[in-house]
Specification:
By secondary structure, the chain is α/β, with parallel strands linked by helices. It is 40% helix and 15% strand. Strands 1-2-3-4-5-6 form a 6-stranded parallel beta sheet. The mean pLDDT is 89.
Length: 207
C-alpha cells in the first residue's frame, strides 16, 4: 500500500537498493537463535509490511514455531487467500490495520480494498490466530460520525464484538506533514460508537 500518512515510510516505501548496503544480513536460523539466547517469547514481523518479505518471514516462522517461539504479525492484511492460509499454521497473533470504512476509502487513499482484509482476518481466526485490529483516525479522511459508524457496523457484523479494536491518534507525518493532529474528542467519539455497538475491547492509542 501507499498510505500518504505512513509512519514508517523510510523503510516501507523505499525503493533504492543502495540504501540497504550497510544493513546486517541475518538468516532465519540466526533470528531464532538470538531470540532463544535473549529469552524472547516471540518474534514480531513488523514496521515494514511482512507480506513484502513473505518467504523470509515464513522460513523464520517455521523455525521459531518448532522451537516454541511465538510468531506475531503487524500487517495491513492485504494479501491473497493463499498467502493467508500459508502463514496461518505458524502464526500465533496478528494486529491488522483496518484503515477506513469501505473499499472507496482504501482505493482513494492507500490502495487495496476492505473486503479482502476482512476476509483474511476471518481466515486467520479460523486457524485460532489471536487477531486485534487497529484504525488510525485521521482528521478529514476517516473521522466523521458516519464513517466511524459504518466501520463499526462492519467490525460487529463481520468480526463480532470480541475482536479488540485499537483506535489510534494521528500525528502529521510523511506526505501529510501539514495535516492536523487528531482531536481527542474524535477518539472518544469512535470509542463511544464502538461501545454502543457492543464492541467489548476498545483501546485508545497515541494519546
Amino acid at each position: 500500500m501507499h498510505c500518504p500518512w505512513c509512519q514508517n515510510h523510510d523503510i516501507s516505501q523505499s525503493w533504492r537498493d543502495d540504501e540497504f548496503e550497510t544493513c546486517e544480513r541475518i538468516s532465519p536460523e540466526e533470528h531464532v537463535r538470538r531470540a532463544k539466547l535473549l529469552g524472547c517469547p516471540s518474534i514480531a514481523y513488523t514496521y515494514s509490511e511482512p507480506i513484502m518479505f513473505l518467504e523470509y518471514a515464513l522460513d523464520t516462522m517455521i523455525i521459531a514455531h518448532d522451537k516454541g517461539i511465538k510468531n506475531v504479525w503487524v500487517s495491513n492484511g492485504f494479501m491473497s487467500e493463499e498467502t493467508t492460509r500459508l502463514i496461518a499454521p505458524y502464526l500465533d497473533a496478528a494486529n491488522i490495520d483496518v484503515k477506513g470504512p469501505d473499499d472507496e476509502f482504501y482505493q482513494s487513499q492507500c490502495g487495496g480494498d476492505l473486503k479482502t482484509i476482512i476476509s483474511n482476518i476471518k481466515i486467520l481466526r479460523e486457524f485460532n490466530v489471536h487477531v486485534e485490529i487497529t484504525t488510525l483516525l485521521i482528521p478529514g479522511l476517516n473521522d466523521t460520525r458516519e464513517q466511524i459508524s459504518k466501520l463499526v457496523t462492519t467490525i460487529v457484523t463481520e468480526l463480532g464484538m470480541d475482536v479488540p479494536w485499537h483506535i489510534s491518534r494521528f500525528f502529521p507525518h510523511f506526505r501529510m506533514s501539514k495535516a492536523k493532529i487528531t482531536p481527542l474528542d474524535s477518539l472518544r467519539l469512535a470509542e463511544s460508537i464502538g461501545e454502543k455497538a457492543g464492541i467489548r475491547y476498545i483501546h485508545l492509542g497515541n494519546v
